[in-house]
Amino acid sequence: MLSKDMNMALNKQVMMEAESSMAYLSMASWAEQQPGLDGVTSFFYQQSDEERLHMLKLIKFINERGGKAEIPSIDKPMDEFSSVKDVFGNFLQHEFKVSESINELVETALKARDFATHSFLQWYVNEQMEEERVARQLNDKLELIGDDKSGLYLFDRDILLQAATASSQSKP
Questions:
Q1: Beta strands in 12-117 (DSSP E)
Q2: Residue pLDDT, tens place only, 75-98
């Protein structure tokens, strides 16, 4: 059974995952409106879907542990970006924010001696390490490219292949 405090903390993370999904959906929509960014568009639609699945995983855990999952209402995400580099900078900063939230949740579970929730959260800890690694790598590549349009073309093509590979691996 989840304690009231743990239930509340997990619901806060449900909101964070919902905000993440909507933020990445907004980034996908922005990219789709830019000419030639098919890869970036696919990447962020996929990221949005992943964050929604993270939210659903939390909701199911809360309910299975005797808590009450709450479906949050969220604020409209940022939807104006100055460049692809701006989008990916926001992506990296958002992943840092999510990691911080997960870490606080793990701390709450440990303080409450809720080892079942702590165990469950280890998947999120590992997921965030991967998300931050990917976000850093993509930002590093964009830094290398600078203002080179041919470099941006190759970046977009590579990220499209990355999104397609990840999508095919996630299918049963």
A1: none
A2: 999 999 999 999 999 999 999 999
Nearest alpha carbon to residue 31 among 73, 79, 64, 77: 79
- The pTM of this model reads 0.92
Q: Which of 74, 70, 84 is nearest to 10 (CA)?
A: 70
Q: How far apart are CA 23 and CA 74, in angstroms?
A: 11
pLDDT per position as a tens digit, 116-129: 999 999 999 999 99
State the Cα–Cα distance between residues 114 and 140, nearest whole angstrom: 38
The CA radius of gyration of the chain, in Å to the nearest whole number, is 17
Which domains does the chain show, CATH number per domain? Answer: 4-170 (1.20.1260.10)
In the block, residue with structure tokens 């604020």: 75
Q: How far apart are CA 84 and CA 105, in angstroms?
A: 32
Q: pLDDT band at residue 161, thresholds of 50, 70 and 90? A: confident
User: In this structure, what token pair is assigned to residue 40?
Assistant: 């970036």
Distance set, CA 97 to CA 22, 101, 152 (Å): 15, 6, 27
What SS3 state is found at 131?
helix
Q: How far apart are CA 171 and CA 168, in angstroms?
A: 5
